[in-house]
Task: structure prediction
Amino acid sequence: MNSRSRSLTPDGCVRGLNPRPIYRGRFAPSPSGPLHLGSLVTAVASYLEAKSRDGEWLVRIENLDPSREVPGSSNGILKTLETLGMEWDGEVIYQNKRNKAYQTALALLEERRLTYPCICSRKEIADSSIAGIEGPIYPGTCRNSFLHKDLSAWRIKTNDNLIEFEDALRGRFRHLMESDIGDFVLRRADGIFAYQLAVVVDDAEQGITHIVRGEDLLNSTPRQIYLQRLLGYQTPMYMHLPVVVNARGEKLSKQTHAAPVANSDAVSQLIMAIRFLGQTPPKELKEGDVTSLWDWIIKNWKPETIPLTPRSCQQLLNFSQM
Result:
């Protein structure tokens, strides 16, 4: 276990009243399988952003939904990070142990009458004639209904105030919450808290100042900023990276049969990732060790050279030969 920095409470909060560091980043994988090359790119970029700024880098396991968690994946991911020489600060936080914190945030929103229970099925929502940026928008059927709370999902009320932010790579990004997204779920009917709420609570309590993640989560960011404002949290800075795709243009994932990172060849795996991120390490580093590679890339990290378009697995493999 890596624990080289300040101590955390069991809920992941910074212990004491020390001010935030200038930079505090995190890597938050889902344990739905082993670490694959797409996730490795995100891990490497978030690590480099933190360490090149003399900041802290935390690891959080996002295992909200037990049906999606593959046994042993959490430990496997942490072992791979260690093999790759990536040292995290503080204790690893597991979302499945943090329901109390999420419930507290949900109760605060409910107390302010910003949420409501919903019993609408996916089919009913899919039949909505209101189109948003990610498909049909929930039409607000249950907004003014009186329902049995225990059998319902919980949604947050949205309005059409503009939510916008400046992404470090992609510039200005904005959504009108009600017309682009609609009232979204904070807790499912089965009691599982939604990613959008959990990640906002966790980032706030862990004092995260900067978030580096894949472009596939770009549309989630206005939702999270919306919740941050309602809950009185600070908004981190964001950087959304190009995703790694397969030959069919699909994002790498367990569902698309992404190959796991090869722990036996850490240097080559890291070189693939940093070349994908637009960096140009000297060829001789391929013959060196992990420590030498990290020393070079932390000193020479240039986020402004990160490409904006997705790249394929084959391109990653080609990078390892360069």
Residues 1-18 have pLDDT under 50 and may be disordered.
